[in-house]
Amino acid sequence: MARQLTPPTPRAGRVVDTSGRPVPYAIVVIVSGSVPMPEIALRTDADGRFGLRLPPGTFTLRAHAPAGSGDTAVEAGTAGDEIVITITPQTVADGE
Known about the structure:
This protein is an all-beta fold and 96 residues long. The chain is 0% helix and 52% strand. The chain is built from no helices and 7 strands. A 7-stranded mixed beta sheet has the order 3-2-5-6-7-1-4, with no helix packed on it. The protein starts with 8 loop residues before the first strand and ends in a 7-residue tail after the last strand.
């Protein structure tokens, strides 16, 4: 018996700083997931927005920008709320 695959669901997201301002041209990657995913990287647009398609499962997305980085967990498989990843400033440890 053939297994029926659920098609990936389109999801929209944005990357913001801790003040809620868009972070343009940040890099977004999938760092972990409950199902195998190819290694991909997306770049946000000038308004910090991005789009991707995810199969059903749970994923952790990470955004990187010169100002810092941030992670968020995403439950995929159905249309959901906009994905928001908040970038927090990177700190340099003493002595570095």
